[in-house]
Each structure stands twice: as structure tokens, then as C-alpha cells.
Amino acid sequence: MEAFSQLMQGFADAVTPLNLLFALIGTLLGTAVGVLPGIGPAMTVALLLPITYVLEPTSAFIMFAGIYYGGMYGGSTTSILLNTPGESSSIMTALEGNLMAKAGRGAAALGTAAIGSFVAGTIATLALAFLAPVVVSLAVAIGPADYFALALLAFVAVSTVLGASPLRGLASLCIGLFLGLVGTDLLTGQQRFTLGVPQLSDGIDVVVVAVALFAVGEALHVASRLRHGPVRVMSTTGRFMTREDLRRSWKPWLRGTAFGFPFGALPAGGAEIPTFLSYATERRLTKHPEDFGKGAIEGVAGPEAANNAAAAGVLVPLLTLGLPTSATAAILLAAFQGYGIQPGPTLLTTESALVWTLIASLFIGNTMLLVLNLPLVGVWVKLLKIPRPYLYAGILMFASLGSYAVNADPFDLVILLVLGLLGFAMRRFGWPVAPAVIGLILGPVAETNLRRALAISDGDTSVLVSSPFSVVVLLVAVLAVVGPPVLRRFRRRQEVAA
């Protein structure tokens, strides 16, 4: 009941005219940037992150709520009309959605994606509001060794789940951990890996790294691959959702939500697995199996609902434990740290008004997206026809301006260029970018808690496995590394035997 009263207070703070304006700006900006080809929610938030630092925290995070959900909505539009998923969790939406668009049913595909996103986002945000205080009450008893174990689980989960190769994911994580070591050691006062450059003594700014790896690296990568010919956009003409479409969609919306939120809330979850599970479930339960592979509306409704529910679920470990389990969550954590706020068990106490206003603004942004964006599909389609040289030049310009605005230091532009080229090389050779950003953000947190735990135990490393919680978490981390190869080998043996 206390959570409900605090949520109502959050709504009271969020529905002021100024905050509603920021929510509207966030949804429009998020959708406009997210709908562009090759740009997913993580890059959208990274690109627009520096803009919000001129605002006070509550207004900034209300805008971020709109950008976050707006980027998700824009990603589904790109997946359906261009067959270009902005991130791996949108692959299933593109699979059937683009086939629907090719068959002249683009409007119905966009409709079920938008309404499914609204339904899933609303239910999942309600679950977030009532689950977060429960998780915080459990997290208060967690010690430094437990936090170190959770950080290791986040490292392993993100490195093995994101990307095609766990080894490349772990290598990307090591890059992020190295970047997190650059700067002055707070305990000893010694400078680490600064190469004698004074600007590096305070470390590398997370915002600059995020914008470089996501925005600059992605822009260079996409521009290098899509150099020839105009972008072919599917038509959005045709009938909107019919009564039959609604009848076939509402159960997949609910099932997708049931898949997405729990996986998003798990430190080892993410949005990829629930979207695949949702697609497989709808294909098995459908009464129209002949439509799959030709443009089945259930194949759009379920995965898109799972994707958006997982996006809300990701906020549970982020707000209550300070653990980002997706690329977008890592950027949001960087936004919190930019304001000197560290998410974790004390966040609901120290920044209660901010957290509940943020949760309330998720409802508001979700509603705005449904009301505004369906009639504006034609506008977003026109954005897709921007000539690509202008598009990527604009992205690089805004990335440069935003990175410079963080500290007003020209040296940040040098870092932006170097890390942007690194991000381009990582994509070129198939290295996922998200583990690097998460390693940069969580690396210092893991180091601090490891040192604290060893200091308490006088250097006895057995303290890392002294509590049942840390033992269970470390075992899950080991299973996340060892499990997939063992399962693949077992399946191969079964196939050979068969």
C-alpha cells in the first residue's frame, strides 16, 4: 500500500505542465532518433544523454523515460518497415513484421507492435513499482562480498548473452574494465594508465565513452556498410488492425509480457531470450500456422510485447542493485552517475521522489507514444528517407557537440575519436559493445567492494564465498559460462548418435 501512495505522489510530480512538456519532448526525440536505420534504444539514449545535463535531475529523468520508450518504439518501426533491427531483441519483430509490410499489411504490423508495447509497458511498469521495494528490502542485507559476486554475475551474463561469441564478449568486457582503471586510485592516490596526460587523472568520462562506442562507432559501421543505393522503405498503407487482428493479438501481448518482465528483471536475463521464447510459443499455439513465415501478426505481437516488458524489467536490478543488465541500462546508469546519484538499495530512501516520479513518467511516456505516434507514422517514414551522408554526418556532429558539452574540454573530442574508431573496429570484427560499457561502469564498483570485503576479512579470500547468497550467485555465474558449451556438445553427441 505504501508503494501505491508513493506512486500516486510520483504522478503528482510528473503531471506538472513543465514535466509533461519534457515527457513529450523525450518521446518525440526518442522516436525520431530511434526510427533511423541502424540506431537502437541504447544508441538513442547515448546520443541524447549530454542534452539532459542542462536540466535538473527530475526533469532530466522524465525526459529519459520518454527517450527510453520512444527509442524502443522507433526500433520496432525500423524493424518492420526496413527489416533493420536496431538491436538483437528486435530480430523477431523484424522477422514477421517485415513480411507483413511486404504483403501490404504494414499498418497492421505497426499497430499491433504499438498497442502491444503499450500493454506490456503498462503491466511491466506496474510490476516494477510494486516489486522494487521488495527487492530493496532484501538487498539491504547484502554485504560487499555479495555485491562483488553480483557484479561478476552481471559481467558474465552480459558478456555471454550479448553477441555471437562468449569469448568476444569477455574480451569486450576486458576493454571496459581496463578503461575503468584509468585515472587516480582513490585508496592510494596513485595514477593508473594515464600516460602522463593530466586530463586522464580523473578517469575517462562515461558519457564520452558511451557516445563514442555506441553513436560514433555505430554511425561509422553502418555508413561503411550501406554506401550504395537508396533506403527501400515498405509502405504503411493498408487497413489498420481489424477485429480479427485484435483477436489474434491480445493473448500474445499478455504472454509476451509474462515472458519479458521476469527475464528483464533477472541479472542474467535480458530481452533476447524472452523474444525468442515468445515467438516460439506463438508459433506453437497459433491456429494459423500457415501464416508463419509469410507474415503472422502473432509473430509481431508477442515478441514486441516481450521486448518492451523486458525493458521495464531491466530497471528492477538497475534501480535496486545498481546493476545494468543491458546496453540501454548501462547508459541510464551513466546518466544517474552524471548527476552524482548511485542506484542501489538506498536509492529509494535517498532519492525517493526522483525514483517514483521516474516510474510514474514511464506510464505517461508510454501513453504519449500510443496516442501520438500511430497518427505520426507517416512523419517517421519520411525520416527514413533522409540521405545517408547527411544522416550520419548529423549523428557525428551531435555526438561531438554533446561530448564536448559534458566537460567543455577539447581533449574529450580526441577520446571520442579514438574510442569511436575502437567501437567501429569492434563491430567490424563482431565484438559486442555493451560489455565494454558495462565493464567501464561496474568495474570500479566491483573493485571497491572487493577491496572492502578483503579489508574486513584481513585479506582472507574465503570471505568471497562466506555467505550462501554469494555462493549461489557465483555458481550461477559459472553455469552461465560453462552451461552453453556443455549443452552444445551434448546436442552434437545426440545428433551423431541419432
From TrEMBL:
Keyword Membrane appears in the UniProt entry: yes
Keyword hit for Protein biosynthesis: no
Native organism taxonomy: Bacteria, Bacillati, Actinomycetota, Actinomycetes, Propionibacteriales
Pfam families assigned to the protein according to its UniProt record, in alphabetical order: TctA
Protein name: Putative tricarboxylic transport membrane protein
Domain DUF112: 20-438
Keyword vocabulary terms for this entry: Membrane, Transmembrane, Transmembrane helix
Transmembrane residue ranges: 20-39, 46-69, 107-140, 147-164, 170-188, 200-223, 321-341, 353-377, 389-406, 413-442, 462-483
Taxonomic source organism: Microlunatus sagamiharensis
